[in-house]
Every structure is written in C-alpha cells, then in structure tokens.
Amino acid sequence: MINRELIRIKVVQLVYAYYQNSNRSLDFVEKELLFSLSKSYELYAYLLQLIIAITNEERHRFEVITARSLREGTEPPSDRFVNNRFAVQLEENIQLAQMIGARNLSWQDDVEYIRSLCDRIEQTPDYQAYMALETTDYDTDRELWRKLYKMVLQNNESLESLLEEKSIYWNDDKDIVDTFVIKTIKRFDPGNGSDQPLLPEFKDEDDRKFAVKLFREAVVGAETYQQYMAEASRNWDLSRLAYMDLVIMQIALAEMLTFPNIPVSVTINEYVDLAKVYSTPKSGSYINGMLDSIARHLAKEGILLKPIANNKQ
Fold first, then answer.
1. Is the predicted pLDDT of residue 73 greater than 80, yes or no?
2. How far is residue 17's CA from residue 39's CA, in Å, rounded to a whole number?
3. I need a labelling partner for 278 at 20 to 30 A (CA). Which of 12, 63, 193, 233 fits?
4. How far apart are CA 191 and CA 194, in angstroms?
5. Beta-carbon contacts of residue 181 (< 8 Å; ≥ 6 apart)
6. What is d(CA 77, CA 273) in angstroms, rounded to the nearest whole number?
7. Alpha-carbon separation of residue 8 from 66, 127, 255 (angstroms)
C-alpha cells in the first residue's frame, strides 16, 4: 500500500528534519522514517474504520426512527443503508479488526463529527437515489460507498484537520491514503467474506528497502551531491536558494545515481512535483532545470549510467 510517492514524501520530510536537528543519529532518523510510514498504514485502517463508524451511527438513527414509527403507527424506515452489503463485509473483515485492535484505533470520541458526516451523506443525491431503488445487489452497495467516499470523505478539509490533530504523522498523508481506500473498496469481493485481503503495508520488500536506502544514500552522499549542484549552478550562490530546494535536489540525485531501474525522467518529475508542494512557487521549474542539467553532465562524464530522455516539464 505504501507506494514510492509516499516514501519520497517521507524521505524529504525526514532528511530536512535530520539537518534541522543535527543531534539525531542516522539510525534514529531511519527508525523514525519507518515509524512514519507505519503511521501512514495506520491511517489507511482508520479511514476504513470510518466507514464502519458511519454505518453504526446510521444504525442508531434507524433504531430511533423505527421505535418512533412503532409508537406513532407510521411507516418504518428502510434498513437498506444500515445493511449495505459492502459495509457489513468490511465490518466483519478479520484483517481490519486485527489492525484496529493492535493499534487501538477508535472513532468513539468523535461522535458529533460522525453525525455531521451522516447528515452530509443523507443529503447527497447518490444516497437518496440508492434509497429509492426497488432492489440492490452487492455491486450497487459497494459502488455507493465508492461514490460516497469520493464525494464526502475525500478532499474533506474538516476531516483533514481532525486527523492532523490526532497525529502529526498524518499531516500530508490523507490525499495519497484516500486513493488506497478507494482502491480497496473497488477490490472487495463478496466471495471472500471476512477474509477479504486488504492492501499490504508495503507492496513488497523492495519498497521497504527503497525507503531505507534512499534516506541513507541522500545523507551519506550529501557532500558529493552538493558538489554536483554547485557545479551546475555556475555563478549562482547556492546559499540564496530555498533550503528545501537543496534537500529535494540532494535526494533526487541520490535516487538518480543509486537506483538503476528508475528512469531519470521519473525521478526528476517526482521531485519537481514535491518541490511545488513543499518549497517556493518558483522551485519546481528551477529544480527541473537543475536536475536535468546535472543528469546530462553526469551521463556525459560516465557517472550516471542511464539514458536521458527529453525533459518536457
């Protein structure tokens, strides 16, 4: 689940923090990197649990309205949403239950916020159309939750603020983790029952090694990478650059020179995108030009043994 985009973000954050707090050892920060990535996986479980929390609140509402309808002799409400087949399967998922239990995750302290999400969901056209259907099947139930997640929970600033208050490690994770949750919803198969596999923490051991190696190489080879930057900048004083720009380029060069299977263009594009988010408005175009120039120089010198395509950033 933790992909290389998220790994690069964490490495940039941790390398920057390493230089800001020089009394920390490499081993300490490396452990912090892996812990930070594990917290991203925790957020994945927590957001899946949010679907269950919303369903449970809707069950409570259903019970209250049903009891009132019995007293007043009115038509009882539909139980379609509270018995949504996908939500029930998620609630019964063994792997998710184990993750929630092991990490002590709960939405119980956020009842009012859960209620506000239920209010928003009930007002959506997709929810209302779903409740008006004559019949539904598993695919319909699952598709509803995919739509509701994208409409109500994804790109939700109030939810992001709430999560940031719960963990400093979740400040920049939600956008990426949202895509993993949506992918998980789409992959659920009723035939798997409670044994439906969730996404793994790492796709494979190579991604875990990529995280550690990228961080180590970026710091250990810092002097060399900074020399490459100084040579490429010609008369430009590196001290005038945003400090984050230097960190981002340093990590990009570490990736470029250490991982032979990652194309140069992929590396440049990834770190240009990071610069647009984490540095100044002009950083993206500057870093793009610098990295492209350094890569071509290193290839010419036989130091970078990769083909370099035309950079269209």
1. yes
2. 17
3. 233
4. 9
5. 44, 47, 48, 149
6. 49
7. 51, 37, 10
